[in-house]
Amino acid sequence: MAAAFLLCPRVALPLRRGCRLVVSCSASSSDAPGGVEFQGRVGFLGLGIMGAPMASNLIKAGCDVTVWNRTKSKCDPLLSLGAKFEASPARVASSCDVTFAMLADPESAAEVACGTNGAAEGMAPGKGYVDVSTVDDVTSKLIGERITSTGASFLEAPVSGSKKPAEDGLLIFLTAGDESLYKRVTPLLDVMGKSRFFLGDVGNGAAMKLVVNMIMGSMMVSFAEGLLLSEKVGLDRNTVIEAISQGAINAPMFSLKGPSMVKASYPTAFPLKHQQKDLRLALALAESVSQPIPTAAAANELYKAAKSLGLANQDFSAVIEALKAKVQSSQQ
Ligand SMILES: NC(=O)C1=CN([C@@H]2O[C@H](COP(=O)(O)OP(=O)(O)OC[C@H]3O[C@@H](n4cnc5c(N)ncnc54)[C@H](OP(=O)(O)O)[C@@H]3O)[C@@H](O)[C@H]2O)C=CC1
Ligand SMILES: O=CCCC(=O)O
């Protein structure tokens, strides 16, 4: 799809009221060949590592975007790009046609949607709420029920892809819920992402996201073990990374994170605390259907150990430090 964008660029036409975003590339909006358009005002709640670049891409595409963030100063760069500000999620929702939310975890996603001055208070028939945070299916259903009780529509749409894909508009949306809202926001998803899946009922998007991140969390631990073993047996770790990149277990994550892990540097793209949250939620999901996931359970213990070493806000690749600490404690 990225290649298709090169051949068929997206066209953004801002109007006086709201956003008239015309996606002229049928490859990016295959369910409406010949182009689809979104008309209306767009709200964005939560301007962290992911939310800020996603909202920024919507503004750059010509959308009329209104933002809110708990820490207000994080709105400033978006306001400089032309965003409007409202003082609460409820006010954003009542002034916008569709509101996106990118919050840290189930607790914050539920609070921002359903709490006092939360988005639900500003919702009404004809409006839509799209939660792109990574949460569990139970939380997503709770948010969905509260939003739809106002007559508004709800779509869960967690994303694969990290800080750089968010900046580059190359995320992967794993959506579920109201299909007409999905179709309505397709042009917006295609500004922020390179692909999208519609998975049916609310909960399926959350479950898909947790499965993907469960695999990713275990892969990272296995990679970290490999790097430490390589070092112990005298192999050059950068050569190990290069050899991996040529073979069947090649993954962009290894080439991207490996060189900085060798240098014990963990610039944050995906915070370790969020990876541990996703493993915790995946374990609960597996428990709910009596599915054993012992490798993920072991990986989760290492992320918990890394958090207790003060690494919660570092990149999740810092989990390697928990393995190093294990070696040190076994030598004492
Ligand atoms: N980073 C990544 O690579 C990816 C992250 N995700 C998921 O996306 C979500 C956001 O991640 P990311 O942007 O990295 O996280 P950040 O920690 O950078 O941002 C979290 C956001 O949630 C807000 N927040 C936290 N607690 C509350 C609360 N109690 N009330 C209101 N707002 C709150 C923060 O506000 P404040 O600024 O005030 O702290 C901030 O806007 C998470 O669910 C994560 O798992 C998904 C894909 C990739
Ligand atoms: O939830 C975070 C996912 C990070 C990624 O897909 O690279």
Automatic annotation (TrEMBL):
Reaction catalysed by this enzyme: glycolate + NADP(+) = glyoxylate + NADPH + H(+); 4-hydroxybutanoate + NADP(+) = succinate semialdehyde + NADPH + H(+)
Active-site residues annotated for this sequence: K209
Domain 3-hydroxyisobutyrate dehydrogenase-like NAD-binding: 203-322
Keywords attached to this entry: NAD, NADP, Oxidoreductase, Stress response
SUPFAM superfamilies xref list: 6-phosphogluconate dehydrogenase C-terminal domain-like, NAD(P)-binding Rossmann-fold domains
Start and end residues of each 6-phosphogluconate dehydrogenase NADP-binding domain: 41-199
Provenance organism: Brachypodium distachyon (Purple false brome)
Gene Ontology MF: a single term: NADP binding
Entry GO CC: chloroplast
InterPro entries: 3-OH-isobutyrate_DH-rel_CS (IPR002204), 6-PGluconate_DH-like_C_sf (IPR008927), 6PGD_dom2 (IPR013328), 6PGDH_NADP-bd (IPR006115), HIBADH-like_NADP-bd (IPR029154), HIBADH-related (IPR015815), HIBADH-related_NP60_sf (IPR051265), NAD(P)-bd_dom_sf (IPR036291)
Name used for this protein in its record: Glyoxylate/succinic semialdehyde reductase 2, chloroplastic
Pfam families (UniProt xref): NAD_binding_11 (PF14833), NAD_binding_2 (PF03446)
Keyword check for NAD: yes
Coiled-coil annotated residue ranges, if any: none
Function noted in UniProt: Catalyzes the NADPH-dependent reduction of glyoxylate to glycolate as well as succinic semialdehyde (SSA) to gamma-hydroxybutyrate in vitro. May function in redox homeostasis and play a role in oxidative stress tolerance by detoxifying glyoxylate and SSA generated in glycolate metabolism and GABA metabolism, respectively.
Family membership noted in the UniProt record: Belongs to the HIBADH-related family. NP60 subfamily.
